[in-house]
Write a structure and sequence with these properties.
Chain lengths: 723, 723
């Protein structure tokens, strides 16, 4: 349909090429991992348990998801099918787009996780040959996820835009990816911490077993958790953010052009609309090169290699995107101001990615055991449990400020460069090197598992120590990538908020509603906190991320309690487990984690999807916008607080376990373990899931605009009584 | 000057009468406390220590405050003096108003606290005669604070309005009260928790001494802390909120009338402007009667008497305010719509106070040891420290939602009744019975101290148990009053936000600036989150309550560490302290708490006053408004989270100490003590101080509008580069 676009805007082909390139490289790397030596029989057995456990969880999750997606496909069909007027998107297309998005994200997560699981034992085995071989297996294992996620996301968005020429069709795809992310991130987060907390509470504290001890019935579930939570969940989360950031930027640019009476097919419209796609392609090429550079760079210090790789990918992104922007400015028939506009947006993207780096580095400060916060938290543990909690929590509170200032600077500069479109492109720029970010992130759980398998497979102490070094590098890299992810999610949801309001205007206009008039004039553009209806909705918005976090933490606790009872039961009923004469019943624990984590998802999903629907219907479009804005502010605060305090506690414990402040067996260590246990659901369940929550809320709002606009002419049921 | 007002609006005289009545009753009650039997020599000695310690702290604090107020008086003088055009307030008047406000609040706090300290030992002594006599001494002791605070605040506001006829003149008074509150609440909060945490860490945990053991060198500092933090600090905090809520409502009503071209002296202007004062007078009468009813009602259950008294005061307020409103509607020359408007605002006030009650009751649910949250937290303690923390924290997160919904309903109904003026009057209504609230609140630390003095004075176990019962009643009452205070503070600062924006328009107009134009039209009225400058400032706003909380918690920790060292030093250097042969050196601990808590205030004060100044100068008036709005949202969230999770932990510990779940000496108890210690600075330092923070920020913003409007025509230094 829109192939003409691509003839004029030939840089769009780069997008397809980048997606294909990422698939090709991913499959080459996958084969490399597949061909590596899987190690001794014990290792293969353990790896088999992990693989089966992960598959069982994903299978169960995907069945639930299939039902969920099916139901929502029908809901979307009705929302877009019944009584829809104007230039609304045909219902069958929105449903199709939604289903494709779900499948693409689900497929990427499944494939990437499988390679990750496959790389576990092979990394442990490669570690017998040295650091570089082990690093390469694990890093390539993670890189497959990075490339598949980015390729599938970018390819999907490209195809939808290519065949329709309108970014609004991508909305379904993005919402589909969000549905998957909600299940994968929150569900995986509950799973992984259920097993981790339960394994620690009984194994470590009650029975003094070491970490990953094969006698612990929760040991395999703990390893499975790393894969389903930290690999599959994280991949789905970043797939979601990545698509949403591109969608937000395309929607805003497109809508602005149409409002300025440019034709859909005008070269200016297509150029500025496809800009986010093209710079994302630049980021994907940069990530592919970056991945190979990291593998080459690793000599002694895998941590340095990962971080250096991130910096290099950033530099490459800046260079390649400049080249692509130059190509775009050469487009025929561009209006006179378009080249400078493209450069301005390139600048916004560059500022975005640099801000992401700065945010990552400041986040690192709060969780790095060579810096004051973690050291002070470790030292306060000497005064007992309470001061450990207070110190870590307070540093978590402090850690909110620097990223916020980073986001503010990126947003301010981007806005000065090209208004809201600039802001949206800053978020696209921040997420452009997501391939590298996901690769670094997925590396962590792979080496973490490798360490466990080396332990369980009876490999030499030397090999285990090497795995420990690889693991610690993963933690270093994680600090930066996590800051990156939170910063990027914040900018993305802000862009989504703006595109929600833009879309609201378009949808309302298609129903003949010219103003919502909640305040003075031009109401529909505005979220004026001076209007009490808007303020009321902002107040309601603060309840969602808080209740959501509480429910997830409770979910982990409840599930962990069930597993704790099961572990105790096994130890009590069969004393031979503790002596190592008989194997523990891993499957029982895996089953508890699997069933429990899906069950605990009901309320979080209702909150994420139900509350925007309710607020939209009760208070209308502007109220919903303000509700989203406030959830974004509170969500960002808690995402940073929970993630960073959790990271500080985790590393304070590791610092003490490294022999500092008296090491293990001291009050300081016991207190640090308390902090770490509190931090587990903070940093790996609730904290990072808030990003997904906010994205899902924003997309739900945009997706169901066609409904809200029909309730009280977009004012909702209650607003008329209040004004 | 404006005496004519009071001839026409004769109900205004009720305000003066209510203030005088409250003073008279307060002095009668003060004499009654003064005449009570002070007990044996040991008790008088301990009471003397507490009195001296409290006096030392207040003296030092007031010297610092005098310097602070002096400096700020000069700053205000310059801000209002130099180059001010239009109808701005004369600088000398604003300075005077500011100084009067500081002195009134400082005086009320000082007097009320002294009576509270005086009542401590006398309550313990009266307990030898039975429950009712002991209750009456302690409750009357607290009631003096309630009445003095309300009387001084209402009298001050009345006088300023009476002599000027313009509510803007009250701004200085309110800002003065805020300065005191900032020092008293945050400083007192650090003081009290420094002593409490240190006494627990060394005395209870390391040396297994019971609570309030006279051998503990921090025991007296702990008792002093109750007085300076929970009595003087709380009194100053509610003085501040109370004045601010009346000011906000008066400013909004006045400004609206002037904008509708009513004359300042018009009966309609004066009637609707003085309405908040008149219903506050109704509340004060209700409180006075309520206080006597509570004293009569107490038979077996002091807790029930306190709560029943609050309900009765509420009912009385509704009745008396209806009567006063009726009188106001009878005013001659009122325009036709004014009576129904007055009734609408009465309705808003009634809805406010009822919402306050509902919020209090739901808050109670989360901290009452007969309800699920506290029980579940206690039970989870059996699994160790970490699960205690996770459970209490999660319930704290959940507890944010119900009060928010309560505030939303009150605000929605009030807005439907009479727009922003209605919202402001809902906050006035919520705070109208503040006399009862403060009385109930101040009762708590008095009986807490009485218990300590009974212990230290060697009274019978029976008497100590009776004091325990009185203490536990204080905790029950506190749950409801605390919810009340947070809800009222939230509505108050919202009213302040609206009056800030109203005032901004007036001040800007006086400089010939007709629009700030940050978005489309009528810019100055708007805080449109769709504008990225507004969003940037909202993002910055989230950093203030978080950093502020962190700094206060760190302050407690740091100070407690110093005191912990001192206690250990005393025990190690002089073993006779532990055997009871020689007295501990209390003064050293008091000195540490006093100096430390004032030193730790520097950063919190800079945040509260400095950040609004900075944002106002950099981003202008609208940016500052959005910064405030976001600080309100985040502040409310953290105030509820920190206060309620702290309350849950505290009561979970008490529940276990009452012998449940194995009682003392178990892992559950150790874990519950950890939770309580974490909760101490949460619920008594950071949580309640956030109210003060937000009020101070809002008042600073309004106070220095005359400066902001002169920077870039009210747009600030940076905004022009961004738009």
């Amino acid at each position: 349909m829109l192939q003409e676009i691509v003839i004029e805007v030939w840089t769009l082909w780069f997008v397809l090429v980048s997606a294909i390139a990422s698939f090709v490289v991913a499959f080459l790397l996958k084969r490399r991992v597949a061909n590596a030596d899987p190690g001794n029989e014990a290792m293969v057995t353990v790896q088999g348990y992990i693989k089966d456990g992960a598959a069982a969880f994903i299978k169960r999750q995907y069945i639930t998801l299939a039902i969920f997606v099916g139901v929502f496909a029908i809901v979307i069909g009705f929302a877009y099918g019944i009584g829809v007027e104007g230039d609304a998107i045909p219902w069958y297309f929105m449903v199709l787009s939604y289903i494709i998005g779900s499948i693409a994200s689900g497929w990427a997560g499944w494939l990437g996780m499988n390679v990750g699981v496959d790389a576990n034992a092979k990394t442990a085995q490669a570690a017998t040959k040295g650091l570089a071989p082990a690093f390469n297996v694990s890093f390539f294992g993670g890189a497959v996820m990075g490339l598949i996620v980015t390729g599938a996301a970018l390819g999907g968005v490209w195809a939808l835009y290519f065949f329709t020429g309108e970014p609004r069709y991508i909305l379904g795809f993005s919402f589909g990816a969000s549905s998957i992310a909600l299940f994968a991130k929150a569900g995986g987060g509950i799973y992984t911490k259920t097993a981790d907390v339960a394994a620690d509470l009984v194994g470590k504290i009650e029975y003094s077993l070491p970490e990953d001890d094969p006698r612990n019935p929760a040991a395999v579930a703990d390893n499975v958790g790393d894969n389903v939570g930290d690999i599959a969940g994280m991949g789905a989360d970043l797939f979601d953010s990545y698509v949403a950031s591109i969608l937000g930027a395309m929607l805003l640019a497109f809508s602005e052009m149409i409002n300025n009476n440019f034709d859909i097919m005008d070269i200016n419209t297509t150029t500025i609309t496809s800009f986010p796609l093209v710079i994302s392609a630049a980021g994907l090429f940069a990530s592919i090169i970056g991945i190979f550079l990291i593998a080459k760079l690793v000599k002694d210090s895998p941590g340095k290699a990962l971080n250096l790789g991130t910096y290099l990918a950033t530099a490459l992104f800046i260079g390649i995107s400049a080249l692509f922007t130059l190509f775009m400015t050469l487009g025929v028939n561009l209006s006179a101001d378009m080249p400078s506009r493209l450069w301005a947006n390139w600048g916004a993207g560059v500022f975005g990615v640099l801000a992401g780096l700065v945010i990552g580095i400041t986040t690192d400060y709060f969780t790095n055991d060579e810096k004051t916060p973690t050291r002070a938290t470790a030292e306060s543990s000497q005064q007992g449990h309470a001061l450990n909690i207070l110190t870590g929590f307070s540093y978590g509170l402090l850690s909110v400020a620097p990223p916020v200032i980073g986001i503010v600077i990126a947003m301010g500069v981007a806005y000065a460069l090209d208004g809201l479109v600039g802001v949206a492109n800053a978020s696209t720029g921040m997420l452009a090197i997501v391939g590298t970010i996901v690769a670094n992130d997925a590396y962590g759980p792979i080496v973490d598992n490798a360490r466990g398998i080396a332990e369980q497979g009876g490999l030499d102490e030397e090999v285990i120590q090497l795995c420990d070094r690889l693991d610690s590098a993963g933690n270093t890299a994680k600090a930066i990538t996590k800051g990156f992810a939170i910063g990027a999610a914040a900018l993305t949801v802000l862009a989504l908020l703006y595109s929600f309001m833009e879309e609201a205007k378009n949808v309302a206009l298609s129903y003949g509603i010219t103003t919502l008039n909640l305040h003075d004039t031009n109401g529909i553009y505005q979220l004026d906190l001076m209007n009490p209806v808007i303020m009321i909705c902002a107040l309601l918005g603060i309840a969602v991320p808080t209740v959501y976090s509480a429910v997830l933490i409770f979910g982990v606790e409840r599930n962990a309690q069930t597993m704790v009872k099961e572990i105790r039961r096994q130890f009590e009923e069969n004393p031979k487990i503790l002596t190592g004469e008989e194997p523990a019943d891993f499957e029982k624990c895996i089953d508890i984690a699997t069933k429990g984590s899906l069950k605990e998802l009901t309320v979080p999903i209702l909150l994420a999807i139900g509350t925007p629907l309710l607020v939209g219907i009760l208070f209308g479009i502007q109220g919903l916008g303000s509700f989203l804005a406030s959830s974004i502010l509170i969500g960002l605060t808690f995402a940073l607080l929970l993630s960073n305090s959790g990271g500080t506690w985790d590393n304070a414990k590791k610092y003490i376990e490294d022999g500092n402040l008296g090491g293990k067996g001291t009050l300081a260590h016991a207190a640090a373990v308390t902090g770490d246990t509190v931090g587990d659901p903070f940093k790996d369940t609730a904290g990072p899931s808030i990003n997904t929550l906010i994205t899902v809320m924003s997309l739900t709002a945009t997706m169901f605009l066609v409904v809200f606009v029909r309730v009280g002419d977009g004012m909702g049921l209650l607003t008329p009584f209040l004004i």
